[in-house]
Amino acid sequence: MTVSLQLRAGHQLTMTPFLQRSIQLLQLSSLEFQQQVQEVLTTNPFLETVEPEEPGTTDAPEAPEQAADASPDEAPITADGLDELWSGGPSDYRSSRGGDDEWDPALMVPGTPTLREHLLQQAGCLRLSDRDRVLVHAVVEAVDASGYLTQPLDELAALCPLDPPADDDEMLVALRHVQALDPPGVAARSVAECLRLQLLALDADEHPARGLAMRIVDRHLDLLAAHDFQRLQRELGCDEPSLQAATVLLRGLTPRPGAGYGADETQFVVADVIVQQSKGKWVASINPEVIPRIHVSRFYASILKGGREGGGSPVSQQLREARWLVRNIEQRFQTIQRVAQAIVDHQSRFFDYGPMAMKPLTLGEIADKVGLHESTVSRVTSRKYMSTPRGLLEFKHFFGSHVETAAGAPCSATAVRALITELIGAEDANRPLSDIKLTRLLEQRGIRVARRTVSKYRDSLQIPSVEVRRMSHRPQAL
Q: Per the structure, how many domains does the chain have?
């Protein structure tokens, strides 16, 4: 066995710390990126924010040029853009604005009240003693976002600042007060109790199947969940039409009474790109509101240049990080704009005609068009959104699988889902379309797809099966 030394030449890709941070910033959402920039601004003295020019500081003839460089909040609003935002004309907007530059159109949109606010508003109208009002408010505060009361009543009684402490009967009375509020089923301690409260809120004369539905909820809810209708019919001792009517009534209830109200914490989504039509072509442009207005301070940079600090000092390192961040911001939005424009060019028919015109698209196809790696395109499209005339859509919305048509050309899965929705929406209520019938109708239109694929697409659209749709319409037919 001999020992020897060998010299080999080779290439190895090494990611520098700056490159790693650049990739990390690229995959952040707009809000996360802005938060990251704000954190750097507070720690790096070489970065400064660019203050927008004050109106009226320059002469009047230069006003049109200022409008092009002004911040998004100060940019003038044209009549064309007004028609897209409001149903009224420009005069209506100006009169409501009243010349206030700080006026926000979003303030005119009514917010959805939370379940807690809705319950407290109703509780304020009840004629209660001071002691009962404290207990009712304690129950309301314990109701979760779904509308359920998961905390035991004895624990709530211990949290109430009352002397003497509330007993079980008082807490039960407070619970009944809350359960009598809208929406029906609120403050229930189980699914069965939630459904029972909703059934009690119905008129027995208008809903003859309410009594049988109450028996199902009290004793046989597990059989209903398992869809064991034959055994359920034997246990209840009823005929098939009565069971179907009770089942339809139960399916009309909601197991989460608080789902229709606003959440306590609102999650905001900011559009990275705005898609508009210009001269017959769809153009994707970066939303100016998401671009940080920062630059490297020339004053501090000149002081460092004239000083004696070495290139490896911490201050010099901060200067390099500041310059890198400014370059990275420009590169980030250039990459996002290139990818967004490539997506818009490929899916231009979607913006013209809707979801049924969506084309199949993969990350690799966009990567080839813009000359980037597929992983880079994946990071760019992650948690990025477009503001389009068709709504606020995520970049990932334009990608998806495809199926073959009779001519051999691919068809987007989004287009197939839109076609299934159209077919079911136009079906006869007394004779709903089965998945097999939907498969044949799609085949008549040149789309070859398996029945299980149709079932999968229908489930993803949250459309019930043909049996459930037929059952829901049967009482109306009788």
A: 3
